[in-house]
Structures are given as C-alpha cells and as structure tokens.
Write a structure and sequence with these properties.
The chain is mainly beta. The chain has 1 helix and 11 strands, in the order αβββββββββββ. It has a domain of 117 residues.
Length: 178
C-alpha cells in the first residue's frame, strides 16, 4: 500500500511540475468597447492605454474621423480647472483647435478635436451621432512648455484616462455648438 501511495504522489508531483513548466497559452485580447469618439481624418496615437498584463505589441494608431453631420457644428468646449491646494474650480471656455493658457499657472492646453458621441472601432475614433451622448475632447497639456499629457477627456466619464497632476485637475464639462 505504501508503494502505491509513493507512486501516486510521485506522479502527482511530476504532473504538477510538467504543468507548471509549460508555456502559458496566450489569451485573446478582448476588443475595446464601442462608445468612444473620433475626429477629422488624421492619425493620432492612443494615449494612456495600458496593455493587458502578459501581452505585447506595437501601439495601435487610430484614425480620427469626424463625420460630416458633426463637422463645423461644435466650436468650443468648456473645461473645468481645479486648483487642488485651494480647492477652487473655474470654468475655462476654449475654442477647438486652439491653445489656452490657464491663468495663475504655467499650464497651457492645446484643445484639438471634439466628438459629441465618442465611439472607438478597431482602427478609428469617431462620433456615432451629433448628440452629446458621450462627449470627448482630445487635448495636449503643457507645463512650462513641456508636454505632460496627451489624450481624451470625457465629460460623462471624467475618471477614464484623466489628466493627473499633483497640483491641478482638468476635466471636460461640455461641448458648445456653433
């Protein structure tokens, strides 16, 4: 009986070693959920997108496509700036495709495309409609002339890929129609 038990334990240990040494099979990466926006045809790298652990691959460049029914319909965005030390906020209007300096700071925001109904596909970012169902604006933020953030700010999901800074916060409040 002891001999059978020893053989059984030896086989069990051996099977655990073999299973543990096998190369892990790569798991498929799920497609990104739909619901993100896009802009006029131009290529923009996705920012602040973490790859799932254990996967590797080149950064995927997405084309921003602004549909005809959205082009020219939105002229500005309203951003909300927060000074974390004083806990004060202020609303900052900014024209699309322009730069705005944040008063009292060394920050400058380059406001780029606005998508009222942000949708993300395999290779494109676009707007599903001209309705503000998922408003997003692409921005680049500079501090003392150095780029410190490139990405999208989402009105309804301000914590999705947020601008992170020790002293300041910046979120998208809304888009402003032309």
């Amino acid at each position: 009986m002891k001999k059978v038990l020893r053989v059984f334990l030896a086989l069990l240990v051996l099977s655990l070693v073999v299973v543990g040494c096998r190369k892990k099979e790569e798991q498929p990466v799920p497609n990104a959920p739909m619901g993100m926006g896009q802009q006029p045809p131009m290529t923009a790298p996705m920012q602040n997108q973490a790859m799932p652990q254990g996967t590797a691959g080149p950064k995927v460049e997405k084309t921003i496509v602004v549909p005809d029914n959205v082009k020219g319909k939105w002229s500005k965005v309203k951003l909300v700036f927060e000074d974390k030390a004083s806990k004060k906020t202020s609303e900052i209007p900014a024209s699309l495709n322009s730069e705005v300096a944040i008063p009292g700071t060394s920050l400058k925001v380059a406001v780029k495309e606005f998508l009222p109904d942000f949708k993300m596909g395999e290779s494109t970012l676009t707007s599903g409609s001209n309705e503000p169902n998922n408003p997003a604006v692409r921005v680049e933020i500079f501090e003392n002339g150095k780029s410190i953030f490139k990405g999208w700010l989402f009105s309804k999901f301000p914590t999705m890929h947020p601008f992170e800074h020790a002293k300041y916060g910046l979120i998208l409040k809304e888009g402003v129609k032309s």
